[in-house]
Design brief:
The protein is mainly α. The protein has two domains: 75 residues, no CATH class; 111 residues, no CATH class. The strands form two sheets. It has a three-stranded antiparallel β-sheet. A two-stranded antiparallel sheet has the order 1-2. Helix 6 packs across helix 7. The structure holds zinc ion (ZN) (2 copies). One zinc ion (ZN) binds next to loops.
């Protein structure tokens, strides 16, 4: 029976799509056909994605506690495999024989992205150095070099992250190790105006808006 649509928010959907493409590659984990083959074979409207996010346990509602932690309950299936509701897809989590570094990476990487996404949803941007420092610690005490690699996989890609220099937006930062680079969701570099307004509000300038109206 075809699965009904899941209730991801658009941002959750984008994030997990990127996560699954990074983890499993650009293919259906049921039949191992890659995206270009699936597009070539597709008879339906090609503006639709050829890979669907499938919940392995069959419960199509997205819940943070079950799906949002390691992504172990999620996988990409093509329409045909999704219809057949394949049970015997190749495993999406590393087997017990996987080397310990890989196991650690498989569970740590989603923790790093979860931390970064949650921080950006809340604060709009994060100091690059603070991201590596705090993110690596929260991701099972991974090294900052590893955290940098995870970050690099998602920077400057649509639905990933983007970085900018504080000079560009006339911003400031209270992190002592700041190197003048901050990170935001891709396409969401703050405008100078917003930063100036935030600063003014922080410094308690009450008539900032009034003054600004005439500039
Ligand atoms: Zn398939
Ligand atoms: Zn900073």
């Amino acid at each position: 029976m075809p699965m009904k649509r899941t209730d991801f928010t658009p941002r959750q959907r984008e994030f997990w799509r990127c996560f699954l493409l990074g983890r499993d590659g650009y293919l259906c984990v049921g039949c191992n056909k890659d995206v270009s083959t699936l597009i070539r074979e597709s008879k339906t409207d090609r503006s639709l994605p050829v890979l669907l996010i499938d919940h392995i346990d069959g419960d199509t509602r997205f819940t943070d506690s079950r799906d949002g932690v390691h992504g172990g309950n999620l996988r990409h299936l093509c329409y045909s495999c999704n219809r057949k509701n394949v049970k015997s897809a190749r495993p999406t989590m590393p087997s017990r024989e996987a080397p310990p570094e890989l196991l650690k990476s498989e569970t740590s990487k989603p923790k790093f992205y979860n931390f970064l996404n949650a921080y950006l949803v809340e604060n709009k941007n994060i100091c690059y150095k603070r991201m590596l420092n705090r993110g690596s610690k929260l991701a099972n005490d991974s090294s900052q070099i590893t955290a940098t690699r995870w970050y690099d996989q998602m920077v400057d890609v649509i639905n990933g992250y983007e970085e900018y220099s504080l000079d560009m937006v006339n911003g400031d930062c209270d992190y002592s190790k700041c190197n003048n680079i901050h990170v935001c969701f891709y396409g969401e570099i703050p405008r100078e105006q917003d930063v100036a307004k935030e600063q003014a509000l922080r410094e308690g300038i009450p008539d900032y808006d009034d003054a600004n109206r005439f500039t």
